Amino acid sequence: MTRKCFMDFELKGTAGKARRGTISFPRGNVETPAFMPVGTYGTVKGMTPKQIEDIGADIILGNTFHLMLRPGTEIIKMHGDLHDFTQWDKPILTDSGGFQVFSLGKMRKITEEGVAFRSPVNGAKVFMSPESSMQVQRDLGSDVVM
Prior knowledge:
The chain is of the alpha/beta class. The chain has helices at 49-54, 64-78, 82-86, 98-102, 130-140; strands at 8-15, 18-25, 28-32, 60-63, 92-95, 108-110, 115-118, 125-128, 144-145. The strands form 3 sheets. It has a 3-stranded antiparallel beta sheet with strand order 1-2-3, with no helix packed on it. The protein has a 3-stranded parallel beta sheet with strand order 4-5-9.
């Protein structure tokens, strides 16, 4: 069985312990080191995708925790994925949402299976496991899953 590679890294140069390279994805290349604007909800506040591209960004960062809660995975999936929803056609990196879960303090309960908490958006009970975080990121169409 042949496994399709979704990412490739080419080393372009080094200087001491620093290195420069290109990460290639089906949606485009990212030169490293990279400027990665934070689009917590999939978009960078106050900027269009064209403006983000014009400042030299080839990748943006979205937050799984926040996107899962608002607008929600189902809403995003109605448009295709996060790329379609935001009209950003270059790579997107999403984090696991773990930092945000830990920042909830006493509002969360951690077990071997995952974490239960109340949504800071609407107070609904939410459970997030490593598996569900990965599924949300797959549903979002993330190019880099953290």
